[in-house]
Amino acid sequence: MNLRSPQTRPRLRLRVTATAETILRGGHPWLFAGAVLDQNRPGETGELAVVYDRKDRFLAIGWFDAEAPIRVRVLHAGNPLTLDAAWWQQRLHRAIERRRGGFDEQTTGFRWIHGESDGWPGLVLDRYGTVLVLKLYTAAWLPRIKEVTDLLCAVLRPKWLVLRLSRNTQAAAQRDFGVSDGQLLAGEPLAERPVFLESGLRFEADVVHGQKTGFFLDQRENRRRVERLSSGAEVLNAFSFSGGFSLYAARGGARSVTDLDLSQHALAAARRNFGLNRDDPSLARCRHECIRTDAFAWLDQNRTRQFDVVVIDPPSLAKREVERAGAIQAYGRLVSNGLRALRRQGVLVAASCSAHVSAAEFFDTVRQATRWSGRTFTELETTLHPADHPATFPEAEYLKCIYLQG
Length: 406
Hints:
Layout: E1 12-16, H1 18-25, E2 30-32, E3 36-39, E4 48-52, E5 58-64, E6 70-77, H2 85-99, E7 109-114, E8 123-128, E9 131-136, H3 145-156, E10 160-165, H4 167-177, E11 184-186, E12 195-198, E13 201-204, H5 220-229, E14 234-238, H6 244-251, E15 256-261, H7 264-276, H8 281-285, E16 287-292, H9 295-301, E17 307-312, H10 324-340, E18 342-352, H11 359-373, E19 378-383, E20 400-405
Parallel strand pairs: 1-4, 9-10, 14-15, 14-17, 15-16, 17-18
Antiparallel strand pairs: 1-3, 2-6, 4-5, 5-6, 7-8, 8-9, 10-11, 12-13, 18-20, 19-20
């Protein structure tokens, strides 16, 4: 595989602000458009750009995106080197080695590559059994889809490889490269949603049309914790999506689980996931209730139903910095309403995937809501990213979860 730009013209050279130099030297993988002082020629999305400092010394090299706010996604910083086929193979094997020993035959769904934190900026690769899902968050990878596909298939040998595209890349992908979101890059057409294992539980992944790459793999460890907390409990799973927390709670011995979600598609997926595991006696005994509703409104209006475990795991409430303050207020309201639905000595599990709300801000908001409730709570644990979703720079730190009992 050769992911270098063809040398039919001078290499794209950029010079950046002093502040950007410091940031790049510190290991940050993004160079924003406003930090570019000059460049030797107009650049095209997908070519390699070399960044130099004010003394004309090599600083970094990365993918150039002519229209995105993140103008360069850094592949390497420090001393100059050649990004040849051997370099890319080594980078892939490094990501694989980081996960070696972390999963067994009971967990066949996990993340192989986590973007910038694994040295593949703007690219995610998830495994669902024999299916791999490649998701691109920058158009800079589009000219090299074939090379990436060839490398992944040669090393990981999936039966299927599915392409998923973020919304900001879909138009360019179709117009300029003839590829589309949900397209199969390798393998025969998928007849049905693939089923994978997580801690021995069977789940389906909607790899073609589902959110993200088809399932929320990043909450695996928190689902395992909820399982351990659910023996004999009545469990509420707000923003339940396809029922991940609910299945774990049921296997952990919950008497009942109640899923709240606005999406009929998500609730149907939860029912199918329960059906996939009906051979487990604990799941067969557990009463599974699905309520199609706005979870915000349901929690706000509920005055009668109470539960032993309440899981609040909403989608991102702050996708932009300007939404941060509103998101913090919304988290506070959700937690306050969730506490009202929690029986005495019950456990509240509150999670956030909003990158623009820091872990400290989120945890402080939850703790403040518990104080306002007038009840005394014991903080059992706080968690961040699982090992297959490493976060090596601040903007990558999105996931946080807190457990409170009282």
